[in-house]
């Protein structure tokens, strides 16, 4: 068998690359610990979730997913900034949210494969983790307790978001009813 020698330069590059990867993994675990979705998870559980996460960098302006695409998973921002928007019936862009490091989006896509209801675009260079349904299904086979804990916590957050949305919708409906009443008074007073 032929003997191979590694150049000291390449050895140094590999060492730096490995250190960078190890540092990224530590950063990922530390970031995940700060996210409400994982606030009840211990370090081992977070490391197991980080192992199934897909890491990806996005350039400023790069599309993460588009409205209408089939959902496959959720995304967690390690660093960067993401705009969530959708198109109105008149094809006008409606800005829904700007998400930053430590926040997550597309979470319904982890459990439901219906088309995306919004578009996500990186507003700045961003490092993002993706958790996808096939990996979650494998986790359910390998570690059902951890997968159940993740799904239960996700359900709690989705329910909280739904309550907030319901309150906002109720406020809009009340405002709309108030405006209708005012408009009716104005019309009646002109007659």
Q: What can you see in these coordinates?
A:
The protein is an alpha+beta fold. It has a single domain (10-179), classed as Jelly Rolls (Sandwich), CATH 2.60.120.10. It is 49% helix and 23% strand. It contains four helices and eight strands, in the order ααββββββββαα. The strands form two sheets. A four-stranded antiparallel beta sheet has the order 1-8-3-6. Strands 2-7-4-5 form a four-stranded antiparallel beta sheet, with no helix packed on it. Helix 1 (8-34) packs across helix 2. It is elongated and about 70 Å long. The N and C termini lie far apart (101 Å).
User: What does the largest sheet look like?
Assistant: 4 strands, antiparallel
CATH architecture: Sandwich
Q: Count every helix, treating DSSP H or I runs of 4 or more residues as helices.
A: 4
Mean pLDDT: 85
CATH superfamily: Jelly Rolls
Give me the side-by-side strand order of the main sheet. Answer: 1-8-3-6
Give the CATH class.
Answer: Mainly Beta
How much helix is in the residues? 40-55%
How far apart are the first and last residues' alpha carbons, in Å?
A: 101 Å
Q: What integer value in Å does the Rg equal?
A: 23 Å
Report the uncertain regions: 1-23
Task: Write the element-wise H/E pattern from the N-terminal end onward.
Answer: HHEEEEEEEEHH
General form: elongated
Secondary-structure class: alpha+beta
Integer tally of domains? 1
Number of strands: 8
CATH fold category name: Jelly Rolls
Task: Describe how the helices and strands are arranged.
Elements: H1 8-34, H2 43-52, E1 54-58, E2 63-65, E3 73-79, E4 81-87, E5 93-100, E6 104-105, E7 119-122, E8 126-132, H3 133-142, H4 144-190
Antiparallel strand pairs: 1-8, 2-7, 3-6, 3-8, 4-5, 4-7
């Amino acid at each position: 068998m032929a003997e191979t020698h590694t150049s000291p330069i390449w050895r140094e590059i590999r060492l730096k690359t490995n250190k960078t990867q190890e540092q990224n993994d530590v950063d990922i675990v530390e970031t995940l610990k700060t996210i409400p979705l994982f606030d009840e998870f211990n370090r081992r559980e977070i490391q197991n979730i980080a192992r199934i996460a897909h890491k990806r960098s996005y350039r400023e302006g790069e599309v993460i997913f588009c409205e209408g695409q089939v959902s496959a998973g959720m995304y967690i921002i390690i660093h960067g900034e993401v705009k969530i928007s959708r198109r109105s019936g008149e094809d006008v862009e409606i800005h829904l949210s700007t998400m930053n490091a430590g926040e997550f989006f597309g979470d319904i896509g982890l459990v439901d494969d219906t088309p995306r209801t919004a578009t996500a675009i990186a507003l700045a260079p961003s490092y993002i983790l993706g958790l996808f349904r096939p990996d979650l299904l494998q986790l359910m086979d390998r570690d059902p307790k951890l997968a159940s804990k993740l799904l239960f916590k996700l359900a709690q957050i989705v329910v909280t978001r739904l309550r907030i949305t319901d309150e906002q919708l109720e406020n809009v409906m009340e405002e709309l009813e108030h405006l209708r009443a005012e408009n009716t008074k104005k019309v009646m007073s002109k007659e």
